[in-house]
Design a protein that fits this description.
The chain is α+β, with helices and mostly antiparallel strands. The protein has helices at about 1-10, 25-30, 40-45, 55-60, 70-90, 125-130, 150-165, 225-235, 275-285, 290-300, 305-315, 330-340, 355-370, 430-435, 480-530, 535-555, 560-575, and strands at about 35, 35-40, 95-105, 110-115, 170-175, 180-185, 190-200, 205-215, 240-245, 250-255, 370-375, 380-385, 385-395, 405, 410, 415-420, 420-425, 455-460. It is globular. It binds adenosine-5'-diphosphate (ADP) and magnesium ion.
């Protein structure tokens, strides 16, 4: 109470308007002295008031973009450039061929070279693509791609600048035999691009090449390294050929396992149940439609004229004939509220582009050479009421599956992906791990899963991936997403359980068969004495026949029930007795 009084005392009075030049030091000093402490006037505090650009913000908060720790920072750079290449190739319907080279420079910096065979960037866009944040071809579209925000490439340019003072060098061509090369930097104060040293020449190349020198980065082969990142990328992108040449000159090629270009991602319209007031205002204020009603029907999925009529009834005070750009916040809020009261058909899953069961199986076999693989692809669902998604989960057992632990043993390895882009960091807060954690592995005979040579492959497919941060390394714990991942894991866990128990039973049978075979020879030579007239060869043949026919029956059938097994055992015993 006391404090409130003081505030009102100092704030009422002759305070000049913000921006007025008549603020005198004397005015500022005239603030009250309370309990011997001189208060500071808000005018003095606000003399420090400044605007900042998004680029300045990310310079200060670079960890939000994944630039924290030397190894992780290099992985982030590789991730940003490689996802851009994959997105661009997918959109242009080109089979990606990506070449990454990492060199240690004598000054302690690293030179990173990323070349793709994609569509390239037209000259007039290169500055904004690589030197302006929140600019790109993806942010404003509701389309399933790896990039979403228009920050990644410029984040790389920023990181080069703030760690080496150098711009990024790039080479690009859109396939018209004209190649251009230039340096791109970002003016962090204004978030605007600076292009220099532009040259143009003719030659045969199509795609984009980025060459950057970076400080505060390090290359190693740890599980968080650029190398592991590319290996995981190859797993989720069997249609891509990815080459990495490390600082030692060692070249690794992740071969393309599949020759088909994935289907081009299709833009989707947002569903009314997935829209926030802020989204609605933004869309409306940028709309070219003349009426609010036609803006709604043409921009949102499942909004028909009859649904607009329903909206009109729920929001009687809103004029649906007015220009969408005149939509006020309170009105948008009312519309979003009304959206929630109307019955909608779920959004179409048409724009979703899963990797596919067959492809995942192929990729897991190709990279891990496992003894057993099973993949589950769930049908599409929605989260936040209106964003369609689906999950794909694969399980691989033995071969190169599993993660090498620090004590030298192998344990469960969870490979997480969002729209085929690997997520290497921040596993703790990710929807995928939340699902893994809550599985009762004991139910599937996999109680010891943490110590088994198992790789779990998990991919979220969505036109909007709810990342927990701009670094795009963890999927937020949306209830529906966690639930779907759980179901998918349970399906593949059940398959692995069946395989393993079948295998154990087969092994036990094989052992029993071997034990009996050991005696066949012995018995065969002894029996003529007992039987008298038959030769040992004839007897051996007959005995072998008995065992083969009965036991093969078991192998052919694979998994027998306990009763069937008992029955066959009985038959064998009877045969032998005979
Ligand atoms: N390798 C590439 N080939 C073609 N276009 C690219 C490539 N890399 C980046 N771009 C263009 O630059 C834009 C900005 O990239 P980026 O900052 O990573 O944002 P985002 O990927 O989130 O859109 C992309 O939207 C795309 O239009
Ligand atoms: Mg990107």
């Amino acid at each position: 109470m006391e404090q409130k009084d003081q505030i009102s005392q100092t704030s009422v009075g002759e305070i000049p308007k913000v921006g007025s030049e008549s603020i005198k030091t004397a005015d500022l000093k005239s603030t009250k002295i309370t309990a011997g402490v001189q208060e500071v006037h808000s005018q003095e505090i606000f003399s420090e008031f400044r605007e900042h650009s998004v680029a300045e913000f990310f310079k200060k908060n670079r960890q939000m973009l994944g630039f924290s720790g030397k190894v992780r920072s290099l992985t982030t750079l590789v991730h940003e450039y490689v996802t851009n290449s994959l997105d661009a190739c997918e959109e242009a319907k080109i089979l990606p061929n990506i070449y990454v080279k990492i060199d240690n420079l004598p000054n302690g910096h690293i030179r990173l070279y990323v070349e793709d065979n994609g569509p390239g960037i037209p000259k007039q866009f290169i500055g904004r693509a690589l030197g302006q944040m929140l600019a790109g071809t993806k942010f404003h579209r509701f389309v399933q791609q790896r990039g979403q925000q228009g920050i990644g490439a410029t984040g790389g340019t920023m990181y080069a600048q703030i760690t080496t003072g150098k711009p990024i060098h790039c080479r690009s061509s859109t396939g018209d035999n004209i190649i251009y090369e230039c340096d791109v930097a970002v003016d962090l104060k204004t978030n605007s691009p600076k292009i220099s040293n532009m040259v143009e020449y003719t030659g045969k190349y199509r795609g984009l090449t980025i060459i950057g020198e970076f400080g505060e980065v390090k290359y190693d082969k740890s599980e968080y390294s650029a190398f592991e990142y590319l290996k995981a990328t190859a797993l989720a992108n069997p249609h891509a050929q990815i080459t990495i040449v490390d600082p030692e000159g060692e070249r690794t090629v992740f071969q393309r396992a599949h020759e088909e270009v994935p289907e081009r991602p299709k833009p989707a319209q947002p569903h009314p149940l997935g829209v926030t007031t802020d989204d609605l205002i933004n869309y409306a204020h940028h709309s070219k439609e003349r009426k609010l009603s036609s803006f709604l029907t043409s921009n949102f999925a499942r909004v028909s004229d009859s649904k607009v009529e329903e909206l009109k009834k729920l929001c009687p005070s809103i004029n649906f004939d007015k220009m969408p750009r005149e939509l006020k916040w309170e009105e948008a809020e009312a519309i979003v509220r009304a959206f929630k009261q109307i019955k909608w058909i779920a959004p179409s899953a048409d724009p979703l582009r899963p990797i596919g069961k067959e492809q995942i199986e192929k990729a897991l076999k190709n990279v891990l050479q496992p003894e057993f693989v099973s993949v589950s692809e769930r049908s599409p669902k929605v989260f936040r009421g209106g964003v369609p998604f689906l999950v794909e989960v694969g399980i691989a057992y033995k071969g190169k599956a599993g993660r090498q632990k620090s004590d030298g043993t192998v344990g469960l390895d969870v490979k997480r992906f969002a729209n085929r882009a690997p997520l290497l960091f921040d596993a703790g807060g990710c929807a995928t791990m939340e699902a893994v954690k809550t599985i009762d592995w004991g139910r599937y005979g996999l109680k010891d899963i943490e110590n088994m040579p198992v790789t779990l492959f998990m991919n979220l497919v969505s036109v909007h991936v709810p990342y927990t941060s701009a670094g795009k390394q963890a999927i937020s714990n949306e209830e529906e997403i966690v639930e779907e991942f759980r179901y998918a894991i349970m399906e593949v866990a059940r398959d692995l359980d069946r395989y393993l128990s079948g295998k154990i039973r087969d092994e036990q049978r094989e052992a029993r068969k071997k034990a009996i075979m050991r005696y066949v020879k012995q018995i065969s030579s002894d029996l003529p004495y007992l039987a008298g007239e038959k030769t040992s060869e004839e007897l051996e043949k007959k005995l072998l026949h008995i065992i083969e026919s009965k036991y093969s029956k078991m192998f052919d059938k694979g998994r027998l029930t306990a009763d069937e097994e008992k029955q066959i055992k009985k038959e064998i015993e009877e045969d032998i007795e005979e």
